[in-house]
Structures are given as C-alpha cells and as structure tokens.
Amino acid sequence: MAPSEAGLVRRTIWLLRTVAAHPEGVGLSEIARESGIPKATCYRVLTVLERESWLTLDPVTRRYRVSLGLLSIVGGLLDGGGAYGHMRDVLRDLAKETKETAGFDVLLAPKVMVVAQVPGPSLIGQTLKPVPRTQPVWATSTGKVLLSALEPETVRAEFGEEFDAHAPEQLGGLDAFIDSMAEVRTRGYASAYDELELGAASVAAPVRVGQATTYAVWIGGPTYRLTRSRIDEVAEPVMKAARQLGDLLSVTGIELPTTAAEF
C-alpha cells in the first residue's frame, strides 16, 4: 500500500472512531477538532462514507452518526459493548427461546434488507444466507409488517412498480394486498408460509422508534417445525423482542441508512 493510501485509511478510521464516540450525532467542525484532521479533508471523507451508507447525515442538524449498516459489518467493534452488542443479545435470546433463527431487517424501498441474524439452536435448520442481503417485501413477514405501517398511497407510490413486476398472482393484486395489511396491524405481527421459499416460514413484528416503523425483528425456520399452529405461540416472544429493540434504538439514537446500498 502506498504511503498516501495508508494515510487515507488511517484518517478514515480516525473519523469513524470520532463519529462512533457520539451516538447522539456530531457536526463537521467538532469532528475535525477531535480528530485533528483538516476540515476540508474531513468533509471529503465523510461525504464518501455517507454516500456509501456507512454514516448517516441528519439533513436538519447536519450531524453525522454511525449507521447500523456499518455496525452490522464490523460486529460492533466501533461500538464496543454498546448498542449493537445489546441488539445481538436480544436476537440471541429470541433465537434461544423460539429455537429458530432470529434476525433484524430495515425497509429500504422497494425491498427489505436483513442487517443482522442469529442462528437458532436446532441441529437441523435453514441454511443461513449472507448478511446484509435484500429480500422482497411481498414474500417476507418483515415486509408485510413494515408495509402495514405505511399509508396506502405511500405503498402504491414506492412499491407499486415492484409489486407489478415481482409479486405472485395469488396475492390478488396490490389493492387486495393493502387491504390485508389491516389484519397485520390488528394482530401486531405478520407471518409468511411457503412464500419466500418452499418449506420456509417466518414471523415478524414491527420495531417502533418514536413515531417511525422502519425496522422489524423476525424468526424463521422450516415449515415442518415452525408450523401454522405454532405461529401464534412464537409471535409473543417476537413482539417482546421488537419492543426491546425499539426501546434500545430510541435511547441510543443509532440510525440506519434511508436508501439502498451495497454494504
């Protein structure tokens, strides 16, 4: 690695550490002062990190925060034993209680993105796929609970094209799908059965942070174990985990990126 490249890597690491030390957010001038890096250089590096969704930038306060997408990659190293570690603990407890794989998703229109998952204790289960990954909203329990929190006009505007291109015919059209979201809101959770994959089932609940419902927690497993009759049984611990994660995110102020990106 050339000296200039090594210097850029070091500056990037210093900037990430500086931002990670301020879960409430930190402005450009303060970042430059604490890191000892010229303000113009800070701005260039931070702009790239924000564009790649490693950081989030509040458009009103102009304060940077570490994104949960980045934390999902580094496994909480920047965050120490903080928020991301606690999130993993909630998912581990959920996986242990339900004996199924547990995960955490974010809505990134027109799909959902899995940003964390913990395998269940069962010896025989589904093959875990890489994280992060995107999945269709129509065939996932997380997609259903996240869309149920949106206004019908928003669903049509942001997801109508995706629905027309990829939604299965058995859903009966976009209007029928939107109507079915009323039941999801009433129950407080959603399920998917033989939808994303044949022989796979999942249950999800919305994670509410303030007035927003951008995240969801889920469990998933094979249909021979996660049977239809078991859905209601496992829904309660899933909803409990969703409340815990909502409280955690509300306290820490960690934000996810609001546009899809390859992490």
From TrEMBL:
<keyword id="KW-0805">Transcription regulation</keyword>
<dbReference type="GO" id="GO:0003677">
    <property type="term" value="F:DNA binding"/>
</dbReference>
<dbReference type="InterPro" id="IPR036388">
    <property type="entry name" value="WH-like_DNA-bd_sf"/>
</dbReference>
<keyword id="KW-0238">DNA-binding</keyword>
<keyword id="KW-0804">Transcription</keyword>
<feature type="domain" description="HTH iclR-type">
    <location>
        <begin position="6"/>
        <end position="68"/>
    </location>
</feature>
<dbReference type="Pfam" id="PF01614">
    <property type="entry name" value="IclR_C"/>
</dbReference>
<dbReference type="GO" id="GO:0006355">
    <property type="term" value="P:regulation of DNA-templated transcription"/>
</dbReference>
<dbReference type="InterPro" id="IPR036390">
    <property type="entry name" value="WH_DNA-bd_sf"/>
</dbReference>
<dbReference type="InterPro" id="IPR050707">
    <property type="entry name" value="HTH_MetabolicPath_Reg"/>
</dbReference>
<dbReference type="InterPro" id="IPR029016">
    <property type="entry name" value="GAF-like_dom_sf"/>
</dbReference>
<feature type="domain" description="IclR-ED">
    <location>
        <begin position="69"/>
        <end position="251"/>
    </location>
</feature>
<dbReference type="InterPro" id="IPR005471">
    <property type="entry name" value="Tscrpt_reg_IclR_N"/>
</dbReference>
<dbReference type="InterPro" id="IPR014757">
    <property type="entry name" value="Tscrpt_reg_IclR_C"/>
</dbReference>
<dbReference type="Pfam" id="PF09339">
    <property type="entry name" value="HTH_IclR"/>
</dbReference>
<protein>
    <submittedName>
        <fullName>IclR family transcriptional regulator</fullName>
    </submittedName>
</protein>
